[in-house]
């Protein structure tokens, strides 16, 4: 078990004063299996009143508006979270027929079994998924084969794609970031009937970080699939979800869990800035 302190600083700078902005932030982690939130706080500048709630997907949301002229919007989310390795039991694996029956019994599975415009896989990815199903003994094994195949096929390159890039577009160039790799894996899993969901959060980049050491961290994305139980996997790094991953939210794809989303009134352009620092405290 590790205790991680996360400082996520983000926002927008504008070319001049904008008259108003309306925003939603999903930057604070939730307590769930494998992690316990000990402290969390969101600071918003300019100071604004805000409304906090948990959305349909279980993410913590801060909704706020700024109705005075401002040339910068800055948010700082600070969290202290205990995280531990997750364990899975192989005997939970369902057969393909049993999985198909279970998927029809609950909304949480049905919603995560349908493709979105972001996750719809191209024909070649569909064939990879179909081959994994044919070669695997059960859905759990097929899902792992898919995650590893996507890892082997797509190169992680920062800046190679945009926040609006779809899985098919990322596959065309075989390059992308964690968001794209997660979308590709989810699309492949759903193609063969395995419910899969998009997970947003943070990743501590050093497995051997010293206690007290602060490093540059990442906003990160990975996947969870259902094959008898929900299992998390990080296809960008080809690793299981463990005590370096901090979960913030889940959804059908990135559109359900963006860290910051909003609109503003004014004639100027905007630039996004982001920095994440993570300190291992125990």
Descriptive keywords:
282 residues; alpha+beta; five-stranded antiparallel sheet; globular
Give the total of beta strands: 16
* Strand arrangement, major sheet: 3-6-1-16-10
How far the N terminus sits from the C terminus, by CA atoms, comes to 8 Å
How does the overall form come out from the CA principal axes? globular
**Chain-averaged pLDDT:** 95
Structural class comes to alpha+beta
Poorly predicted tracts of residues: none
SSE run: EEEEEEHHHHEHEHEEEEEEEE
Largest sheet at a glance?
A: 5 strands, antiparallel
β content, as a range? 35-45%
**Helix content, binned percent:** 10-25%
Give Rg in angstroms. 19 Å
Secondary structure tally, helices: 6
In short:
The chain is an alpha+beta fold and 282 residues long. It is 22% helix and 41% strand.
What do these coordinates show?
With 282 residues, the chain is of the alpha+beta class. It is built from six helices and 16 strands. The strands form four sheets. A five-stranded antiparallel β-sheet has the order 3-6-1-16-10, with no helix packed on it. A hairpin with a 5-residue loop joins strand 4 (50-54) and strand 5. Helix 3 crosses helix 4. It is globular, with a radius of gyration of 19 Å.
